[in-house]
Amino acid sequence: MTKLLGLDLGLRRIGVALSDGQVVAGQDTIEYWDRTEAIQKILEIVRVEQVEKIILGLPQNGSTENGDMVRSFALEISKLAGLPIEYVDETLTSKEAARMLSELKIDPKTNKYKQEIDRISAKLILEQYLKEKCPK
Question: Does the predicted TM-score (pTM) go above 0.90?
């Protein structure tokens, strides 16, 4: 099975999820204050988890500025990691993650809530990729 890394790239955090091609698990979030440091953390995950492909959420209906930021980030990671990158439409993943979290009664103003949104969004991005690219 191909090991996949799913990323939900935001302005402050990056949601991280992993998959073995069948099961998807939301992993963590990476604080995104320093681009170089964030990329180093992603490269460490790639190395430790023996990732073979990276899946990034790309806003289809959003601003081109966000799309350009995601593509630029992806290009840098791809060069450094030597791995292929594919994109999945991330439209509504954050809203779906918020809906899922609403049942847990976590205060939406907390950092923990925001981290969970990003982690779940990364998981949803990977699940979407698997549904589109690897139908059963």
Answer: no
